[in-house]
TrEMBL record:
Chain ranges passing through the membrane: none
Enzyme Commission designation: 1.2.1.9
Catalytic residues of the enzyme: 258
PROSITE patterns: ALDEHYDE_DEHYDR_CYS, ALDEHYDE_DEHYDR_GLU
Aldehyde dehydrogenase domain segment(s): 19-477
Keywords assigned by UniProt, alphabetized: Oxidoreductase
Name of the molecule in the record: Glyceraldehyde-3-phosphate dehydrogenase (NADP+)
GO terms assigned for molecular function: glyceraldehyde-3-phosphate dehydrogenase (NADP+) (non-phosphorylating) activity
Keyword DNA damage: no
Record-stated family: Belongs to the aldehyde dehydrogenase family.
Length: 484
């Protein structure tokens, strides 16, 4: 850390194997969330440039699907190696661009390299199947179906700001190994990190046109990309509002959507409260709560609520607050608008009788970790995703009430249950409407080969290495009729 890694004030977009400036002549300023300065500009590309990218992707994909998976793997292994060798530079850019601590940014890069390698290995070990007609009444033994997975074509990968490298590569790697081409649209705040990741991919001498980096505001080029007839599959991670809009615009293409969340941490009266408090605070406040999987509300049994609140407060007091350059856990939010939104949720709750346990302090877009007690269902913070460091505590009288409140949410990403009674944990888990339920642990996406699922307003389809590969391929059946 320390040297200035942002060497170019204006970053180019990437298509057909070349780095280009947009003919629009327009760029977008990328302002660091904590440095109060513009750290670079990215191209605002035109619809015609999107067309060119998709056209070259279609061409390149045909040949890419023809070569062997071992050949495709060799490019991706090189990509993983390149990322590792550039980890310090990329981590520093992630830190500056999205305000994530250097340590977390670095582990995002190494996690990405691990992800790519595991994706290759998984794909190498995925095989088709065959079946004979004789199993069905009247069917014949001489009819054999060979069922293989084939690529879908051109995958549109749209990623959010909070994991600008990892969540993008988590789409690009499975798409490529399965034989697809990729149009990658990074979050604008995150596009420089995305550019660096694609520079590493470019170093592998990947065939021209196979991957394009298209930069520009989602509100400007998003619909054009999503509705484009040359796109055969969309993998999107981002907010629920954007995802729902996208689903309405996209027609007749498979979609995987990983969206927002309001993960509850349910604490039963028999829980190990000390451990629960640790897990909840780490789950809620890492990277200032800017994680889809952050614990975003605590539903605690009234009998142990006072004790838990004391323990939670103690854990919050240990959190470091400040600059990502100092390795702080609580860092300035991505922009002022996001901080304003968190502030509105806090003010609404306080106006309706919630009590501040700790926090509710703000310096520009840095919001100190805030615990709110006595939150009720009337308050917005009980239901809305803050994407910031505020954790509401709702006191409940029973497991049934906790389950009811958990399920009344529009979201269904994950939930955590804290109890020493495994039967009780399963009884609750079975009733929770969420993609995943964690028992005695914080909500989180990893390890990355686990299926990662959002239901209701939290998404559609499944990610996770094998599931991502499956989502970017389809089954194809070839039937052999042997002469008898
Ligand atoms: N379930 C999951 O796996 C995850 C979910 N998330 C969710 O993402 C949100 C935070 O990320 P954030 O980046 O702010 O999310 P946004 O929804 O604002 O943006 C996500 C991506 O969508 C793009 N986009 C914006 N408008 C359109 C459009 N009309 N058509 C197509 N694409 C568009 C954005 O581009 P641009 O930046 O240019 O606007 C960005 O690349 C939170 O709600 C969080 O919960 C985050 C991570 C993981
Ligand atoms: O954006 C997010 O929040 C991630 O998908 C969650 O990943 P994590 O649980 O590994 O932080």
């Amino acid at each position: 850390m320390g040297t200035n890694v942002l060497t170019s004030s204006s970053y180019k977009f990437y298509t057909n194997g070349e780095w280009k400036e947009s003919l629009s002549g327009e760029t977008i300023d990328i302002k660091s969330p904590y440095l109060s300065e513009v750290i670079g500009k990215v191209q605002a590309i035109t619809n015609e440039e999107v067309d060119e990218a998709i056209c070259s992707a279609q061409e390149a994909q045909k040949l890419w699907a023809e070569i062997s998976i071992q050949q495709r793997a060799s490019y991706l292994y090189k990509w993983a190696d390149e990322l590792v060798s550039r980890q310090n530079e990329i981590a520093e850019i992630i830190m500056k661009e999205v305000g994530k601590s250097y340590k977390d940014a670095k582990s995002e890069v190494t996690r990405t390299a691990d992800f790519i390698r595991y994706t290759i290995e998984e794909a190498l070990h995925m095989h088709g199947e065959s079946m004979r007609g004789e199993s069905f009444p009247g069917g014949s033994k001489s009819k054999i179906a060979i069922i293989e997975r084939v690529p879908l074509g051109v995958v549109l990968a749209i990623s959010p700001f909070n994991y600008p490298v990892n969540l993008a590569a988590a789409k690009i790697a499975p798409a490529l190994i399965a034989g697809n081409a990729v149009i990658f649209k990074p979050a604008t705040q995150g596009a420089i990190s995305g550019t660096k990741m694609i520079e590493a991919l470019h170093e592998t001498a990947l065939p021209k046109g196979l991957v394009s980096l298209v930069t520009g505001k989602g509100s400007v080029i998003g619909d054009y990309l999503v509705e484009h007839k040359g796109i055969n599959m969309i993998s999107f991670t981002g907010g629920t509002h954007t995802g729902v809009r996208l689903a309405q615009k996209a027609s007749m293409v498979p979609l995987v959507l990983e969206l927002g969340g309001k993960d509850p941490g349910i604490v039963c009266e028999d829980a190990d409260l000390k451990e629960a408090a640790k897990q909840i605070i780490s789950g809620a406040f890492s990277y200032s709560g800017q994680r889809c999987t952050a614990i975003k509300r605590v539903l605690v049994n009234e009998k142990v609520a006072d004790e838990l609140v004391g323990l939670l407060k103690g854990e919050v007091e240990k959190l470091s607050v400040g600059s990502p350059e100092d390795g702080s856990t609580i860092v300035p939010l991505i922009d002022n608008k996001s901080a304003d939104f968190v502030q509105i949720l806090i003010a609404d709750a306080l106006g309706q009788g919630a009590e501040v346990v700790i926090g509710n302090k703000r310096e520009h877009n840095l919001i100190h970790p805030t615990l709110l007690d006595y939150v009720t269902g009337e308050m917005r913070v009980a239901w809305e995703e803050p994407f910031g460091p505020v954790l509401p505590i709702i006191r409940v009288l029973s497991d049934e009430e906790a389950i009811k409140l958990a399920n009344e949410s529009e979201y269904g990403l994950q939930a955590s249950i804290f109890t020493k009674d495994v039967n009780r944990a399963f009884t609750i888990a079975n009733k929770i409407e969420a993609g995943s339920v964690q028992i005695n642990g914080r909500t989180e996406r990893g390890p990355d080969h686990f299926p990662f699922i959002g239901i209701k307003g939290s998404g559609m389809g499944v990610q996770g290495i094998r599931k991502s590969i499956e989502s970017m391929t389809r089954e194809k059946v070839t039937v052999l009729n042997i002469a008898e």
